[in-house]
Amino acid sequence: MGAEANQAGHFTQLETTPEIVDALLEAARYDDIDDIKSLASEGVSLDSKDSLGRTALHMAAANGHLDIVEYLISQRVDLNASNEEKNTPLHWACLNGRIEVVKKLILAGASLSTLNCHERTPVDEAISQGKMDVVDAINAAVAQLELAGVQVS
């Protein structure tokens, strides 16, 4: 799996140029999981960031692409990666009302307490946009974790 091994047993890796990162983020934004898997198999880090600090998880979370979010989580990407404004994928999912993505990120361990450059948590962003259904989803996910004995940050 991943990049192919050469005869010395080392993995060859596709150089992660800005164009490659853009292709990865575009695939996540437009729900093209096959392109994401292809880039990953060529050795592109799924945690790669563009010039604004955005990751594939930011793009998938903002656009509600749950299958890509689940794939990226399964590949152990950084759930709390922050862009240049210190927004995490959870901030973006909350801002855009992506309820299922919000729940998935929280259940996978995304932080609820990370502050962006405006000193707002993901919950604050949901409230600022009047997304009370997102707040309800956050509370439900937190309750589910607490019932399972998981500490939520």
UniProtKB/TrEMBL annotation:
<dbReference type="Pfam" id="PF12796">
    <property type="entry name" value="Ank_2"/>
</dbReference>
<dbReference type="InterPro" id="IPR036770">
    <property type="entry name" value="Ankyrin_rpt-contain_sf"/>
</dbReference>
<protein>
    <submittedName>
        <fullName>Uncharacterized protein</fullName>
    </submittedName>
</protein>
<keyword id="KW-0040">ANK repeat</keyword>
<dbReference type="InterPro" id="IPR002110">
    <property type="entry name" value="Ankyrin_rpt"/>
</dbReference>
<feature type="repeat" description="ANK">
    <location>
        <begin position="52"/>
        <end position="84"/>
    </location>
</feature>
<feature type="repeat" description="ANK">
    <location>
        <begin position="85"/>
        <end position="117"/>
    </location>
</feature>
<keyword id="KW-0677">Repeat</keyword>
